[in-house]
Amino acid sequence: MDAVSTLFQKATTSDGGSKEEVLTKNLIQWKIYVDNDKIRLGVFKKINTEWESISTRTENYPYRSRI
Predict the structure, then answer these.
(1) Can you give the pLDDT at residue 43?
(2) Is pLDDT of 64 > 70?
(3) Pick from 58, 27, 62: which is nearest to 42 by CA?
(4) Could you state, in order of their start, the residue ranges of all structural domains in the chain?
(5) Which pLDDT belongs to residue 51?
(6) pLDDT tens for each residue of 21-56
């Protein structure tokens, strides 16, 4: 879970614009997309040579980060 926490920190330290971060460990890949009011997290598993989606979740997050 520490890897996902680090991924969120990297994605939310931007200047308030849209940002996408990708983290790959072993056969699992996490993609997080942060926009002004939404966070989308996708989890993918590598099968043979392609990444297949395991789960995707989008959350409304209408709060601005404090800098």
Answers:
(1) 94
(2) no
(3) 58
(4) 2-60
(5) 95
(6) 898 988 999 999 888 788 899 999 999 999 999 999
Q: 36: which DSSP letter? A: S
- The per-residue DSSP string of 29-67 comes to EEEEEE-SSEEEEEEEEEETTEEEEEEEEEEE---PPP-
Answer whether 48's CB lies under 8 Å from 64's CB.
no
- Among residues 34, 29, 59, 63, which one has the least CA distance to residue 45? 29
Are the CB atoms for 12 and 65 separated by under 8 Å?
yes
Q: How far is CA 24 from the centre of its chain?
A: 11
Q: Are 43 and 63 in contact (CB under 8 A)?
A: no
